[in-house]
Structures are given as structure tokens and as C-alpha cells.
Amino acid sequence: MSDLVLLTGAAGRIGTVLRGGLPERGWALRSLDVVPVPDPRPGEEHLVADATDLAAMAEAARGAAAVVHLAGISGESTWPAIRHANIDGTYCALESARLAGVPRVVLASSNHATGYTPRPDGGPLREADAPPRPDTYYGVSKVAMEALGSLYVDRYGLDVVCLRIGSAFAEPTTVRQLATWLSPADTVSLVDAALRAASPGFSVVWGVSDNTRRWWDLSAAEALGYRSDDDAEQYAAALIEAHGEPDPTDPVHARVGGEYTTAAFDAENFQA
Ligand code: 15L
């Protein structure tokens, strides 16, 4: 099997983490972004192209073992911008894989696909108990992403793993992120697991570190082979001193999507 991965959105925040970590796990990278990736590594192929350009994407996907699709807008925006970058972009990632005969696609979905889901009273929230419930246009684009992934599995037999990523940052900077943080090292581990899992078919898993305050279940990700090494708790004392203890009745802590479910994310604030 080829070890070549087409990485879209390679110059972005998560792309930069994966460009550092995936080669150490044995993957060769073909990094694609609309801007040149900074400081390409020896052996790293790099392309400047738009992930919504199907012809360019189909060419870029040739010979790859998998596409890891990160390209798109990574938060709320106007509907036309989200529709084009995120929904058309996901279609192009999957369709280019099909056209080029690439058997696997890993999609950067988001917790915001299910953002209005309330925190359960009991044990951790499983993906199966969190059907689409988007909190924003951005969340809608991630629901569409998961739906397109499902279509390409059922109709064309691809393997598609959707990662419902929490808060993938260098370190947590809010009290909510003490629960939702996905560390850089765990980001690499999760994508590596999604690339290696034997015949995952269609799989949707949370992307979160094994945080003490986590309330999203990890067993589906662990079934792919993911093992988290990090816990946001080391940042808890400083964040709580600065911002106070989380109020469990506050929507920011009582719903999957946190701040995205509040009025600050109403459409009036995201006009073209
Ligand atoms: C996401 O999906 C965004 O890409 C990121 O910027 C954060 O808002 C994150 O979710 C989060 O929920 O913390």
C-alpha cells in the first residue's frame, strides 16, 4: 500500500500540526493549500491549489493512499462563504478520491455538527446519541460533510472517518476547553489511527483528549486504535483562577457546541 497522504488545508492550524507529526508515523505527505506551505520538509510534496477546484483536487489525489481533508473555514461565517468553502470543498475531497481511486478519506468534522446536543445527566455522550444538531451555518456544513461521507461509503465503498474535533489548539485557553481540548500530539494520534484502522467503513468519532472533565465518549475513537496521551487538567488551576468555575447550567457548558449555541453566533453577526 502507498503511504502517501494528500493533506488539504495543510498550511492551517491543524495542518501544521499534522505536517509535523504524520511523517514521524511513517506517512509521506502531499500538502495542499491555497497559500504555499511554509518550510516544506525534505520529501514533502507541496501544491498550491484550491480544494474546491475538482480538477486540481483529482490531479492532486492521484497515487495517494488517503485524503485527509482539513481545508475550509474553521468557524462561523456567512452562508455563501460556508457553502462554498466547506460544502463544495468536502464534495471535491470525496469526489476527487473516487475519481483517483483513493480508498480512504479522513474528514475534519466538528463538535458543532451536533452543537445543540445537551450534556447528558449520566455517563459520557456517545456519537450514536448525538445525531446531527448543528449550532451554526458552520455546524450545518459539518453535518453535510458527514452526510457526504456516508454517501461515498454506501455508494462507492470508500472508507470515510469523520472526526468531530473538539478544541484543537496548542493548549486550552477557556474553561470549556478543559473538557473539549484535543492536544496537538493527540491530533496526530487520532488522524494516524483513522488512517490505519482496518476497514472502518463509515465512522464518526469525537476528537478529544482524555481530559479529566471530558464528557464526550472515547470508545469509538479507541476502537479505531486511538490512544490519548494528554489531559487538559494541568491547565485547570490557572484557567479557573482567571475565569471562575464553570457553571453547569450555562449553555456554554451544558451543550456540546458551547459558545456557538449563544446569541453571539446569530446570523446578524455573520453577514456578507
Ligand atoms: C471548531 O470546530 C473550530 O474549528 C474551532 O475554532 C473551535 O471553535 C472549536 O470548534 C471549539 O468548539 O472549541
Automatic annotation (TrEMBL):
A Pfam family that the UniProt record links to this protein: Epimerase
Database matches in CDD domains: SDR_e (cd08946)
Xref: InterPro entries: Epimerase_deHydtase, NAD(P)-bd_dom_sf
Record's protein name: Uronate dehydrogenase
UniProt family annotation: Belongs to the NAD(P)-dependent epimerase/dehydratase family.
Origin: domain of life: Bacteria
Keyword annotations of the record: NAD, Oxidoreductase
Domain NAD-dependent epimerase/dehydratase intervals: 5-172
Spans annotated as Disordered: 112-132
Gene Ontology molecular function, alphabetical: oxidoreductase activity
